[in-house]
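Appendix B. One record, verbatim.
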Amino acid sequence: MSGVRRAAPVAWLTAMAVAIGALSPTLAIAQTPSALPVPDIMLKLPRDLSPWGMFLSADIVVKAVLIGLVFASLLSWTVWFAKVLELMGARAHMRRTIAALERARSWQGVAADPQLRKGAAAALIAAVETELDLSADTLAAGGAKERIASRLERLEAAAARRMIRGTGILASIGATAPFVGLFGTVWGIMNSFIGISKAQTTNLAVVAPGIAEALLATALGLVAAIPAVVMYNMFSRWSAAYRAQFGDAGAAILRIVSRDLDRGAFDRRPAARHPAAEAAE
């Protein structure tokens, strides 16, 4: 009887251990901190991580950054389109002007050429004619050439400033867009940490939207900045080439004027009276 009494508690303890062992996986899953909250979080988080979906779900500050970067990019391409048309037309016209000036043999032929009476060539010719009229009563042709050269140089500098006008905004966008995108990046990461704090979990579903917004702001900052820098460098080279063409046209005009001045073609001074005629009076 004593053996049976001892065996009963042992059998009961063994049965209890087997039951607890069978239930332990279920209890372990139930005690996992993130097992129950995750489905609710997943249902509340945005599932669309396309660029448009990220924009719609972004914070108001990140939205403002993204809109500003898109506007800056559109502005860069607008300036590029306008300046490409302007510079290409100006350079083509200046090539035709230089070819026409190389064919001319005298200032009279330059003044009679209709192709040289429009665009930048017309401004050069008008400046030369103005100085010739003002210098009609001077004695030294060298002084007239220096004054004409000075006028042509000022026109060349003004043409270069006109061609580079509007490209400063490209330099500004290229310099500031990466930092604006970086600001959006920092703000998006801050939102990620705030989401972690509120949800009390480091689940990727909580962190992903804020990180996606941050990366989108960085990408748009680079999309706005890189083309703007390339465009600015391109326009700087094209403007320098146009200024060189303008200088070549001015030099060709100055050579023609110099030859005619040496011939006396512009001498409008009254002829000197003969000393005998003055004595007879």
